[in-house]
């Protein structure tokens, strides 16, 4: 789930960076959340349900 969230946030960040240059702080927050999600994905690993 973290990996999917990270991919969505990175895509949103890239789209926002290209389209809306005035919203710089929000775009960088999206990037920060994406990086945190990727780190959490690798730290927690796969869980068996």
Helix/strand layout:
Layout (H helix, E strand, L loop, with lengths): L1 H18 L4 H21 L5
Beta-strand percent range: under 5%
Task: Give the topology string: H per helix, E per strand.
Answer: HH
Query: Ranges with pLDDT <50 over ≥5 residues?
Result: none
Major beta-sheet overview = none
Total DSSP helices: 2
Determine the mean pLDDT: 76
Structural domains: how many:
1
Summarize the amount of helix as a percent range.
over 70%
Which class do the helix and strand fractions yield?
A: mainly alpha
Quote the distance from N terminus to C terminus: 13 Å
So what's the overall shape?
Answer: elongated
Query: What is the number of beta strands?
Result: 0
Query: What's the gyration radius in Å?
Result: 12 Å
3D structure, described in words:
The chain has 49 residues and is mainly alpha-helical. The chain has one domain. The chain is built from two helices and no strands. The protein is elongated, with a radius of gyration of 12 Å. The model has no long low-confidence stretch (mean pLDDT 76).
């Amino acid at each position: 789930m973290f990996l999917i969230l990270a991919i969505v946030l990175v895509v949103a960040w890239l789209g926002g960076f290209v389209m809306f240059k005035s919203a710089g702080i929000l775009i960088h927050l999206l990037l920060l959340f994406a990086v945190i999600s990727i780190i959490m994905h690798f730290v927690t690993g796969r869980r068996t349900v």
